[in-house]
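A quick word before the example. In earlier lectures we treated sequence and structure as two separate objects. From today on, think of them as two lines of the same record. Here is Large ribosomal subunit protein uL29 written that way.
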Amino acid sequence: MAVGSPDLTSSNLRGFNDERLVEELRKAKEELFNLRFQSATGQLESHGRLKAVKKDIARIYTIMRERELGITERPEA
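And the structure line, produced from the sequence above:
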């Protein structure tokens, strides 16, 4: 079983355009910040979510880098 959000799988992310990837990355980083803040204050209930969000961020960065290097194609419209 893969770690991460079910709606941010690699196959789904590959279908997103660059602007949508940047938006998803922004949302994931914001969520990670909030989770870390909750963890520091002792309010975090689901510690597994931290790992999942980190994996999502790494997955988004990987796809962005693959496109930059020309390994994968950008989706058509």
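Notice the following. The CA atoms of residues 32 and 53 lie 6 Å apart. We will return to this example when we discuss secondary structure assignment.
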